[in-house]
Amino acid sequence: MTKQPLTLNVFIHEDLSDDSRRGLYNTHFSWFTDEIQELSGRKLSVNMFSPSEAETLSGFDYKKISAAGSLDAWAEKLRSYFGSQLLKDSHTRFNKYLLLTRDNINQSTMGIAQIKGYASLASIRSDMVPAHEAGHMFGATHEDSEILYNGWWSETIMTSDDFSSLRSNAKRFSDKNRENIRKYLDEPIAQQARPRPEDDWDDD
Prior knowledge:
The protein is an alpha/beta fold. Helices cover 31% and strands 20% of the residues. The chain has helices at 21-28, 30-40, 55-58, 67-82, 89-92, 129-137, 175-186, and strands at residues 6-12, 44-49, 95-101, 111-114, 119-123, 147-149, 153-155, 168-169, 201-203.
């Protein structure tokens, strides 16, 4: 039986208006797409929305002292825009929403995401940040990340120590996180979305 496909909806913030949609995709999402499809056996479509295509969302004021506050406000903005479907596990399990920004949320936070949720924010200050935050939405964790060695050190996607410039991007999840993502996607659908705990998010 064909597995339900996945969708990652990326809203390009207005502060990235001068950047090429194709360039942003190639740098931050093309390799992530290959990795998710290979590990899950599901097709992943990454929909990149320019500021002019989603003005209400692309103008979101994301810079806040509290990264958690910014995530909560973004999730509420999405619920207002898309409605009750975001309360259904049958939708949010397979459809995710990411705001792609030029700058960090604050001095210490490049991105933040709901764990196994539908909402995340990610800056382009590092090539890995958008994939890292999307990984959280699909069930990957910092604890199961790994530093690999194959002639040189490389970081798997969920490494959480600010992405060292001395290590390369492995462009893959660790084996444990690959299993975490498969398990999350394959587990039975809840009849109704469970209320999310207040601390059910992760910032990086």
